[in-house]
Please model this.
Amino acid sequence: MENILVVDDNQDNLDLISLMLERHGFKNITALSGMEALVKMGKEPVRLVISDLMMPQMNGIQLLEKVKESWPDTEVIIVTSAGTVKPAVEAMKKGAYSYIQRPFEDDDLVLEVRKVLDYVNMRKENTNLRDELDRVRHGNLMIGNTPLIKAIQELVVSVANTNATVLIMGESGTGKELVANALHNASGRKRGPFVKVNCAALAESLLESELFGHEKGAFTGAIVQKKGRFEIADGGTLFLDEIGDVSPAIQVKLLRVLQEREFDRVGGSKPVKTDVRIITATNKNLAEEVKRGKFREDLFYRLNVISVNMPALRERKEDIPDLARYFIEKYKADMNKNIMGISDKAMQALVNYDWPGNIRELQNVIERGVVLANRPMLDLADLPDNISKGPQRISIAGGEELPTLKDAKHLFEKQYLEKALMMNKGNISRTADMIELARKNLQDKIKTYEIDIDRLLEGKAAED
Model:
């Protein structure tokens, strides 16, 4: 929970507000003066200050000015009495988030606090997204906090600054090229060229010329000498995408380059030396291709010095919220659209979908949504029907509906999280520790499943 500091020179008022906050699960500390508040803020982080306006020595506006001077990201709510609206408005001009008038009910205060903390969290989230955007733009690692992605991030860091050949495997759209870019940009070759070739996009004769170049007159139309990608990538990195689709003849030539660091241009007889790091990627199982005689075993072992297995998006659904928000940030900037985020229902629909096209499909869906959106938040209406309408259900005898296995898993996970939260009295940090899940991932799941912690605790109290 975010720290809230309550400041009032009247002990009764202080105790009342503190009790209201605690009833709703908000952690808070108290201070009887502005000076005491500043001392406490210097000792531990505070996200929100709720301060009385009229206090001796240092009033609420003076405290606000000190807070904004030293902790500009900390928000302030001013508590006023009837007839003191004018100074409260002055406080807002000086940076207060809002004010609340006495007398007020629990719900009034809690609503205002939730609004402030939601704003603080959204601002922090946007800052994190901008940082993530900068990291991705500069060739750093892919977005995600699941163990699968963290393991890949650590592997990339450990092998980037070597010349080891890397084989990246995974379904189409899982981000294989992003890993190749990250390896290059984190290596000593980052000032050299990063050259990409899609091996599946060219016929064998064209691919050979594209990779190795050709001499003048080597074939009809070869009117000048042409450098191949191995020469162009000299001193840098050559990324061979869809390596599993190359022909046996090209495989032989690739093996020679890997073994001897030289090749012949098409139509040439003089070996050309090259200094490149080779990174390859495939959506095929190359080990199976070797067994079937479709891929050379010696080449496979040369390419597979370091292997990276990219998980499908359906295997890392916890990362979907971060990815979705990242793409929203990207495309709203590209299209100059004022979109603040995505609704909980739309996010849940994204999480429930299985993403056969992986991250690339998610990216396209978000781009489409941003184009179509005519409101501040992306909603179900902005998503394709196959996603917005959710998973299909099947009927069984007797007219009952049986949920799909995927739905059943989601239902179990929601109930499991609710039980864990109740056991820990709504404390997210303790719950995350108990179920061995990162706190941020737990918060994302709470949002995804629309778990109302206050209502959970109220229901448990009623049962007790």
About this structure: The CA atoms of residues 160 and 183 lie 5 Å apart. The two ends are 25 Å apart (CA to CA).
